[in-house]
Recover the amino acids of this structure.
């Protein structure tokens, strides 16, 4: 097989760990696979370089930041190639430029535009292990760019797509994707397989294994993604196309996001364009709004409505400031803020074809006397906002109700 | 003027010092000069990276070493560009590749072959300050190479030559070139100007300000080189073509090299090719022989000769081993080893056109009762090997005899 393996900052955080990675790589190579390894900077390095730059300026020149930050991954890739070579296997390291990764010119958060598969394919032809510095590329003018946080995962997925790899393994310090957070529900099970769409919901709902950008790209490029731990030999979780999953479970997991706050707008004057005005103002302030629920409000005949939405807790103050001008102009009667909330979500592709999944969630909450403040559903998930003191209870009860511990 | 400034590892050793360098650069720019800055890695960084690589292998793969080590200078160049930009002046950093520096493929000790002046010249056109990562280039295949120790000086001189700079300033922690080591003779004076050839002699004789490679390149490319300190505002020493120096002093300086050992070969069978055999054997063992003196020896009619030579003290053991086989084959009667020697040299272009410079040196030694063991002269220097306990006395007496303290 042709396999792309990506090792994150913790997995290459010390020289000892880089040596362990080299051994792991050689073991896989000895099984007859061709290998491309993508590495992050040693943990702490990128932050160190950023703090260096901030010594000179709170907002350092972005094109220079990219040149600066790209050095962390270059160091790791050279060191790993040296380590593999020292153990008797041919290996070369390639920078983003060397690996043919071309991005747009949005320094510090560039998007990959094309990858020329030739440099890597010709290097692996004779069995050489190619180590690629993740997180970076060059723009059309040949200037070094970086891909933003989580960029090395993106590099790995994009390379896997470009060279037509059979598998793209993302090594972290976590075993894989679990039915829910094992710290909350010790009965949580590692999923052997999950679909791209489910993983996207899980990721955006708070599961921290993979960033949504990487899963989206894997889906787009049809890359079989595996997330597993570099600290043990356990099988990880395969993230793949729904059609490739034989037995689709009704529900794959329960996600919990405790980082949300709820803003309730009571008595909003119900005139055309008011929602667009309010959420336009929030968007202009760069506030990321998650759930939005609108219900009719007020007494019969009153021309008003209620709108609830959630934002990240650390953006709540900004959101409040943004909203108060509508109260001042009497377009909103009252504002209710609640930051003691949690969002619990049930995720599963099975619910596309099965009914009763949502009602089971509501019944389960009701049995435990947990009040649901907001509901939002998509084809493959049901999210409920509840009082955050019930969040662990809700997760455990739902986990059991959908028999995820079986 | 178009000026290339090079700052060494100590000058950019901390963030505070990089900020000081930025201020110095801006001051020069404000005087109306166009500037290209070449930087080394922050002091200690290159050694740190080397030690990382040696963790995996005593002799790490050389092409990977170059990728690895080149990151140190890239970091400094980005940081300095960020610092200059933060102070309100446009600045960009360029890697060796970005600056158009093409070398041969001798990884870890590559030689600069060509420099395309266009990238730098087009960048400085609008007054932008260009910061170049020293010590590195790329080979014809586009692979990153490094130039070996002292490589950043070479980068600066080669760039100055390629873009036709009026001046190439090398900033270190030393004020310039002195008539002799001020720690030995406090009356030593800083030279305002010295010729390339004198500087070459001084450098190869132990003055540590500049490496001979850089001076040789400056001479070849006709680059006006200035060595000065980044820690004060003192004028440095201009190193330039002899013809540009109006008043040529008879003697420019006294150099001392205490790192030599003397090997005396007594009673060498005087047959054709014997010297070539001996020194061929030493060369094959990679031993750098400095002075060689041959005198006729033995009694009248005996067909033997005496040969003395000096080597670096740390290569003495290797040299002895190499020589003993000639004693064993009876081609040499006896071997005398003396590692308590010092080489004192008088350097000056003036001696080309003046007589009596050498005899004054010998007279001065005689007056102090210092025995001269070996003498070797070139057009612009006289070197004498003496007992090393007299070395400081010799330096001070010669310094005064040639009136260098005046």
């Amino acid at each position: 097989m042709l396999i792309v393996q990506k090792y994150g900052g913790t997995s290459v955080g010390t020289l000892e760990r880089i040596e362990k990675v080299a051994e792991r790589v050689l073991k896989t190579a000895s099984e007859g696979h061709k290998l491309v390894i993508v590495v992050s900077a040693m943990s702490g390095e990128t932050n160190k370089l950023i703090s260096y730059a901030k010594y000179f300026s709170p907002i350092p020149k972005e094109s220079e930041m990219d040149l600066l930050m790209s050095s962390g991954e270059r160091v790791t890739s050279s060191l790993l190639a040296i380590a593999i070579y020292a153990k008797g296997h041919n290996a070369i390291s390639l920078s983003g430029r060397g690996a043919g990764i071309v991005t747009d010119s949005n320094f510090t958060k560039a998007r990959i535009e094309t990858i020329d598969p030739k440099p890597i394919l010709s290097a692996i032809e004779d069995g050489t292990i190619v180590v690629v510095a993740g997180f970076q590329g060059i723009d059309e003018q040949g200037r070094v760019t970086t891909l933003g946080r989580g960029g090395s995962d993106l590099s790995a997925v994009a390379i896997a797509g470009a060279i037509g790899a059979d598998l793209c393994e993302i090594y972290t310090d976590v075993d894989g994707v679990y039915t829910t957070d094992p710290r909350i529900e010790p009965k949580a099970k590692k999923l052997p397989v999950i679909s791209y769409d489910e993983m996207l919901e899980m990721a955006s709902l708070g599961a921290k294994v993979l960033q949504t950008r990487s899963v989206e790209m894997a889906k787009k490029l049809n890359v079989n993604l595996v997330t597993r731990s570099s600290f043990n030999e356990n099988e990880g979780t395969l993230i793949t196309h729904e059609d490739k999953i034989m037995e689709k479970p009704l529900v794959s997991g329960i996600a919990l996001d405790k980082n949300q706050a709820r803003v309730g707008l009571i008595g909003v004057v119900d005139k055309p364009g008011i929602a667009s005005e309010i959420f336009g103002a929030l968007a202009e302030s760069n506030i990321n709004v998650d759930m939005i629920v609108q219900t009719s409000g007020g007494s019969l005949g009153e021309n008003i409505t209620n709108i609830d939405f959630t934002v990240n807790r650390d953006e709540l103050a900004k959101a409040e400031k943004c909203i108060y001008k509508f109260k001042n102009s009497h377009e909103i009667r009252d504002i209710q803020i609640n930051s003691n909330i949690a969002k619990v979500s049930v995720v599963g592709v099975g619910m596309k074809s099965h009914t009763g999944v949502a009602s089971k969630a509501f019944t389960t909450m009701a049995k435990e006397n947990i009040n649901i403040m907001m509901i939002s559903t998509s084809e493959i998930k049901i999210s409920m906002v509840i009082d955050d003191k019930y969040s662990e209870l809700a997760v455990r009860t739902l986990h059991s109700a959908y028999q995820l511990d079986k």
